[in-house]
């Protein structure tokens, strides 16, 4: 990790190179904060320039040379200077010396940290910038005094001046992936990006510290940061230099902001002198930002807060936190977050005496899915004699923190306090949830059913019945789940949370049955009541997302999936370490990427979900199944089989409702290993099982998998009254009457086109798939059409070939059985030639690499063209985009 690979900055690098090669002769100076990457960008730009065309000199000014005449340019000027020259004569001599060394080539002078140049060097740089055939490049650090000759470069319009902005999230993620040698989980990358402020130097120090402390670790090939920050001495020193010396008053301002941000400007002016607040803002230590109609004060950089909090003595820390709590309470806790903030300050300062405050704050933190903070506050509420309510909340949170054994202990400790039916019903549901999903005790369902009958109050009873219903759904007691859910919804006395939980159960069941319109309406109703149930039952969001995700996946609604993986819940779950939420959303993200044909992204997202859910007892099997699908799509039989084994190992019997996804993945794994017969038999049996369970929505997708294996005419299901069985194509057509949405008719048309061996219909279907971004299905349909047209030697094979190439250009590495049908039969040596040519390698270079004569290479390429059905001599790289399944170059 001594030198990081250069990532991003494509536009800035292009602008830097254009300043030299663009013909206008204008230079460029880049400004930015320390560590933002100015020097690295300058070095990369200089390294890309040909030294045979340009005379290039690079100098790095420093504080040690700033006091020496021409000390900044000592690296490029001759060691012996003529004696007796005037200052102007020395400048002319220096210019002549550089021109002589350039030997007629255009001069490029690059000055790193030009703000540190001594006056004669700065004057010389300005003079050089005025010469013909000379370009001056440079970097400047924000906040430093710039010599007047350097400032005059852009004020006199001799060079351009630009601000180098921080790295964005995408570039930061790419940098982390390169350095760690593997992808980083998106939530961890996002937190590191925010903490570093997009500054590569600070990011490097954060990563080094996290690796050194063991807080950055790899699971299933995905790097994940625990979120705990250990500040290395080098990072602390770096931030100390930025903060600089502080007066006591300014230090108080920065410390209050460090412990209290965002802090209202009015409140901060009460706790500190307004003049000190102004000084802190002028020095760039804090910033004042508008938030609605309020002015808030924040630290100028997140790491300032980390350093200030670590360096603040314990006694002063507790005093400042208590002072902040007093300020907010005196103002009346008017903002939504004030309760939570005051509770944390009271807890940290040792002044928390009100268990009600701690309990309310814990509930608020859990409603925001901040599991670590909610756990801490709830435990403090229990310790402060918060009674049964605090114990119930703590046990619930521990369940969603993957600590069910501890949760049971907390809940059983207050079993003697169940002195009312409402408390008993809540205890039953939380205890049942922990036992069923946390401890995998399936007998919990029957126990809850018996105990629910003992309750006399309808509201209390329906709460237990709603939980029983969703448990029965998950273990495939489908009729009972529907009956219980309807009973809850029919009871006007049922609480809002109980009713909406039952509605989620119905929405999930309706989606699996293919009644997507009813499912969507139910989901919308649950969302409309979110303000009324989130405070009581925030984890209901998981049931809602599972129902909504199931519906969107069965509908093939990729855009809909995109929307929910970036909504408020996704942000809250990621920031709050709510792993069940982020893990499931990662599965959805992988599913959408897979259907788009973005197999690398699908594999990365599924691996990330597996890493997040490594200790989960709920969705881990589903995550591994999606990983198996992504690996199979890429033709990686080994990883697909390994992922499927992990899915079987981690899948919970209490989540039997997810079996369609796991078994569909098993079919893909069998296919990628080459056993198409076993894959066909498995998928046919799965379709029959889904038919028996009434899961028509899932059945449609499984039947389509059979179509993709070329089995559109395979008999499936029971015999009809005429003694025959429906074919896959016929059954899909039949299901268009039962399953809602636009996807089933499209899949049925695909099946009929395969059964009829109609290239025109296949290409029409491919276009419709492409409109919905279902690029894998589109490419497979086009590949089969091309296969038919080649076999018939049709004149339209060329246009079909181009269409397939366009579709595969939207994807990355794909290796599916259907795509192999469109694959020409090239020899291994022809494939080698084709791969190199796809990378733009010249024929002579190909010949050298393959130890062939140029003439032999020409013959190979001619055969490639012929087997691809290409006439003339088009650009081979574009032509090879239609070759599926043969390496990265060919498939891209």
Automatic annotation (TrEMBL):
Coiled coil: none annotated. Residues 819-884 form the HTH luxR-type domain. SUPFAM superfamilies: C-terminal effector domain of the bipartite response regulators, P-loop containing nucleoside triphosphate hydrolases. CDD domains: LuxR_C_like (cd06170). It holds the Pfam family AAA_16. It comes from the Bacteria. The keyword Nucleotide-binding applies. PANTHER family: TESTICULAR SOLUBLE ADENYLYL CYCLASE, TRANSCRIPTIONAL ACTIVATOR DOMAIN. This is Predicted ATPase.
